[in-house]
Write a structure and sequence with these properties.
Keywords: Coiled coil. By secondary structure, this protein is an alpha+beta fold. The chain is built from four helices and 20 strands. Strand 10 and strand 11 form a beta hairpin. The longest helix has 30 residues.
């Protein structure tokens, strides 16, 4: 999203929505008549200060008696140099003000939207138009502080856009925000670079779901749903199994934990009792039977 660096009235906008643009292309300008006059005046003052310095030096070389001794000469040079420096600073400031009345494109892309029209007034920093590099699109997500500690740049991601439910885009984390934003519930913004996909044509503003590959196993592993695993008083994981007709506690070692499934590293050769929650009150030794 591009904006002017100063306030004023828009003189012209040189592009239309959908137009391709090149890097450093002039796309919009403010009416800068007053600022241009200030710039010309500042340039004239600078030229005058520099000319006075040259004449002073020439006058000393040709008529030293009129200027005085070396000490007086040095004082005169310093005074003239101060005037030159002040005029230079004024001129550069005026140049910057005029420069802020133009908008140039920072990269090659396409005009997505134009938010203002010629003749309208804008303030410094107010959004005027939006361009995007459609060959390099990013998907932004918010992560809370707990999950943020699990991700890093380059981590792989899978994206399913709401408009393309049957197709998955792949990407990788490109940028991690360095600070939280109270306006976003103190979450971190994460930018994901999306890879090209011939079936999916992303558009600016599309929403969807993202899965981040935090960790993976070399191949398929045994797993149980998270609520089929329990923890004893020492926080050791176990499952309820059926040994014949008796329910028993079976300690296990767990591995990767996902939102739904948890890896089970301990081989289980008995039937696992499922559909049990912590409020059921099962104890070891209870009798059970298998029903269809």
């Amino acid at each position: 999203q591009l904006s002017f660096g100063t306030s004023g009235r828009i003189k012209n906008i040189n592009i239309q929505e959908g137009d391709p643009v090149n890097t450093n292309q002039l796309v919009a300008a403010l009416d800068a008549q007053t600022l241009s006059s200030n710039l010309a005046a500042a340039k004239s003052s600078l030229d005058g200060a520099e000319k006075d310095m040259e004449l002073y030096i020439e006058n000393y070389e040709s008529n030293q008696d009129a200027v005085g001794g070396m000490d007086e000469y040095k004082i005169g040079v310093e005074k003239n140099q101060t005037l030159v420096d002040k005029a230079t600073a004024t001129y550069r400031a005026a140049q910057g003000q005029v420069r802020d009345t133009y908008i140039y494109t920072p990269f090659e892309g396409k005009v997505v939207s134009i938010l203002k029209k010629p003749g309208e007034s804008v303030i410094s920093g107010e959004k005027v138009l939006h361009i995007a590099d459609l060959d390099q699109l990013y998907f932004e997500i918010l992560l809370d502080q707990e999950d943020f500690g699990l991700v890093k740049k380059g981590m792989k991601a899978e994206i399913i856009l709401d408009s393309y439910q049957n197709d998955t885009l792949v990407g990788e984390i490109y940028e991690l925000q360095d600070f939280t934003d109270p306006a976003m519930d103190n979450n971190f913004k994460v930018k994901i670079l999306m890879s090209a996909n011939e079936k999916v044509i992303p558009r600016i503003g599309m929403t969807g779901d993202v899965s981040l590959l935090v960790e993976n196993t070399p191949g398929e592993v045994s797993a149980l749903v998270y609520d089929e695993i329990f923890f004893d008083d020492l926080n050791k994981p176990f499952v309820w199994v059926l040994d014949g007709a008796t329910i028993k506690k079976f300690e296990i070692e767990i591995g990767l934990e996902g939102d739904i499934y948890t890896e089970i590293r301990t081989p289980i050769d008995k039937s696992v009792v499922i559909g049990v929650n912590s409020d059921t009150g099962i104890e070891e030794g209870y009798k059970a039977k298998v029903i269809d």
